[in-house]
Structure formats: structure tokens, C-alpha cells
Amino acid sequence: MTKLKEWEEVRKEFFTKEELLVSNFKCSLIEEVIKARNDKGISQKKLEKLSGVKQPIIARMEKGVTSPQIDTLIKILNPLGYTLGVIPLDKK
User: What span, in angstroms and rounded, lies between the C-alpha atoms of 44 and 79?
Assistant: First the structure.
């Protein structure tokens, strides 16, 4: 009988460590943007008015259809009370 592989095993077979890091980062980043928007009770349409970024762009970003440019992220994060930063990796 063929053993089914877990998704993590399959991912590791097809993607490099760097590709997985980028993918995980993008997912985490988008999750945080969505959480911040929801925590503030702001709709995508309201965020469009506050940030100047069109609602369809915000929707595509939140669905993971597109990868936003850094300047777009900053425009979206600013009215939510956030910004981007660079932090050191914990190398143990």
C-alpha cells in the first residue's frame, strides 16, 4: 500500500529552503495585515480610502494572488498603525 506523504514532506521535495522561507514569510506577513485590518474594524474599501491603495489590489494581496511591492505594503500598514522593519534572525 502506498503511504501518503504529509504536505511538509512534499513541499521540501519541490522547493528549496530559501523558497520555503520566502513563502512562509509572505503568508505570515499577509496574515498580520489581515489581522491588523480586522482588529481595527476596517474594511478593504475603507483601507483604500485611508491608504490610497485600490481595494482590488488589497483583495488580491490578502488572497495571496499577488505579492505586494514594499511601498504598497507601507501605504497599507501606515493607517493600520504598523510599518515594516528588519530584525535579526535568532541563530542558535
Answer: 12
Domain range annotation of the chain? 9-80
Q: What are the grid coordinates assigned to 49, written together? A: 480610502
| Predicted model pTM | 0.79
Grid cell, residue 92, equals 542558535
Tell which residue, 90, 78, 77, has the closest CA to residue 29: 77
pLDDT digits (tens, 9 = 90+) for 14-72: 888 888 888 888 999 999 999 999 999 999 999 999 999 999 999 999 999 998 899 99
Q: What angle do CA 27, 31, 35 make, to 5 degrees?
A: 175
Q: What's the CATH code, domain 9-80?
A: 1.10.260
